[in-house]
Amino acid sequence: MIDEKDLMSIEVARMYYEFDKTQQEIAETLSISRPTVSKLLKHAKEKNFIQITIESPVDAIGSLEQGLKEKFGLKDAKVAYVSRSRMRDVDFDLRNLLGKVTAEYLADIVKDDDRIGLSWGETLFQVSQELKPKSLQGVEVVQLKGGMNLVEAGTHDQEIMMQFVKNFNAKGQYIPLPVVFETEAAKQTMLNQKQTQKIIDKISGINIALYTIGTVTKASLLHRMHYTTDEEFAYLEEHAICDICSRFIDEHGEICLEDLDARTFGIGLDKLAEVENSILVAGGEEKLEGIYVALQKKIPNVLITNSMTAIKLLEH
To answer: Structure pTM?
Structure first.
């Protein structure tokens, strides 16, 4: 199994042999010591990464994907290679790369008459921007959770929907409801409406779900839009590790704040786990624990992530 040291040694070997970098230059670029560079070069030789040509890190990605599928019982996994030095680049945005990989994956799996459910946020916005037109018939796209009055919040919910509809020649179903109601009674009133039931039926009929993981910070949507009280958010900060489709879960994968969850409109995590292609797109250190818990709870059956996150998940 390829591990972090293997990937690092391959990166060092490429810099040394292919780009003629000195060991000192490599050490400075990667913020490691020169003796460490020497040890990594030796490791690369011992593992036979250095031959006539140097094995590309991309060639090792297949073993990471297979490892994720075996460890977490996934039907599929896609891992995007990102070097340690690139992750440190202040101009690098992992969401852009994950968006590209996810768009390519969707191009392969989406077919006529599919029903696609979408969450929203920056990661899915990047996915939508990377989509390419595909000649399809009968595709429908529906939002997985409420999104009304979120234009100022930067969720990109309408833009994401528009791009999916355009590129997959699909019909779109927006949810003209808030993601969180002020009271459970207000939510129940809307659930009793015939039009709301039609939306729920569409969500129930999806065979592809695409979503990411949100972190619990003061920059989060629920806090900025005042959907929670200060006391509720303080509780989430202490107990929740992430949210999935605005469902906040703790380290055991259990719902935090039942009252808040009862006021939330959208697909439940149990239903998300039943979708034929339940695709989680997420990566990075800050989302690692949330991804791990989601995988342990068998919520997604497809994971799209980056190489460092994949390695840490396998080592967890």
So the answer is: 0.82
